[in-house]
Amino acid sequence: DAKTTQPTSMDCAEGRAANLPCNHSTISGNEYVYWYRQIHSQGPQYIIHGLKNNETNEMASLIITEDRKSSTLILPHATLRDTAVYYCIVRVVGGAGSYQLTFGKGTKLSVIP
Amino acid sequence: GAGVSQSPSNKVTEKGKDVELRCDPISGHTALYWYRQSLGQGLEFLIYFQGNSAPDKSGLPSDRFSAERTGGSVSTLTIQRTQQEDSAVYLCASSLQGAANVLTFGAGSRLTVL
Fold first, then answer.
1. Which of A33, A39, B42, B60 is deepest in the core (most CB within 10 A)?
2. Tens digits of per-residue pLDDT, A46-98?
3. What distance in Å separates the CA atoms of residue A78 and residue A36, rounded to the nearest whole number?
4. Distance separating alpha carbons of residues B27 and B47, to the nearest angstrom
């Protein structure tokens, strides 16, 4: 797996956009970028994933740089319920061992009232 | 069911006892995963089931840990002769085969070994 680097923690004002960066400079061509989050005392929750194009769903947007060495998860209007640890994961799809998602320490996002 | 169901949600046991943790995956999901999360740590992969294929047990930390998946649905994680270092939240997840690694996790079973 490509190693990912995320800031340990971030704060965001309620109602503002939260932009969570992730560096994955050693990503290979067939590796996708996934984002999960874990709210306190709950299991991780899938947010979004992408290969090279920007992606958007009802939860968030994923912006991947053209060289694919970094990405940003955007929560457009953060609420207090978005306070969680956010994990950026890089993984191939399919193939031996591709199901072993490696969760690092992630970014603890605190949404401030 | 609508989500991944795990039981018990909390289990306190004495060192040396055996424990069983249960996972009911989402109906129709052929892949099932067990992870564990120790206090303040990231998720650690334990075992993976996919359909009728042999499970990948490469993440199990010792031979005291075992898991079964009966009928391609419910799974049980068994820890024999529990130790204090086994204390953690044990998380189960399931996914559709080929669903691009989109896992749905349960709420977890918190195990405390005294």
1. A33
2. 999 999 999 999 999 999 999 999 999 999 999 999 999 999 999 877 665 56
3. 16
4. 19
